[in-house]
Amino acid sequence: MTRLRVYDDTRALFHLPDGVIYLDGNSLGALPLGVAERVNRVITEEWGNELIRAWNSAGWYVQPRHLGDRIARLIGADAGSVMVGDTLSLKVYQALAAALDMSVSRKVILSDTGNFPTDLYMAEGLIATLGRGHQLRLVAPEEIEHALSEEIAVLYITEVDYRTGRRHDMAKLTAKAHALGIVTVWDLAHSAGALPVDLAGSGADFAAGCTYKYLNAGPGAPAFLYVAPRHADGARAALSGWMGHAKPFAFELAYASAGGVERMRVGTPPVLAMAALEASLDIWDKVDIKEVRARSLALGDLLIGEVERRCPQLKLVTPRDHERRGSQVSFAFAGGYAAMQALIARGVVGDFRAPDIMRFGLTPLYIGEGEIVRAAEIVEEVISGEVWRRPEYQVVHAVT
Amino acid sequence: MTRLRVYDDTRALFHLPDGVIYLDGNSLGALPLGVAERVNRVITEEWGNELIRAWNSAGWYVQPRHLGDRIARLIGADAGSVMVGDTLSLKVYQALAAALDMSVSRKVILSDTGNFPTDLYMAEGLIATLGRGHQLRLVAPEEIEHALSEEIAVLYITEVDYRTGRRHDMAKLTAKAHALGIVTVWDLAHSAGALPVDLAGSGADFAAGCTYKYLNAGPGAPAFLYVAPRHADGARAALSGWMGHAKPFAFELAYASAGGVERMRVGTPPVLAMAALEASLDIWDKVDIKEVRARSLALGDLLIGEVERRCPQLKLVTPRDHERRGSQVSFAFAGGYAAMQALIARGVVGDFRAPDIMRFGLTPLYIGEGEIVRAAEIVEEVISGEVWRRPEYQVVHAVT
Question: Which enzyme class, named as a word (chains A, B) (predicted)?
Answer without folding.
Answer: hydrolase
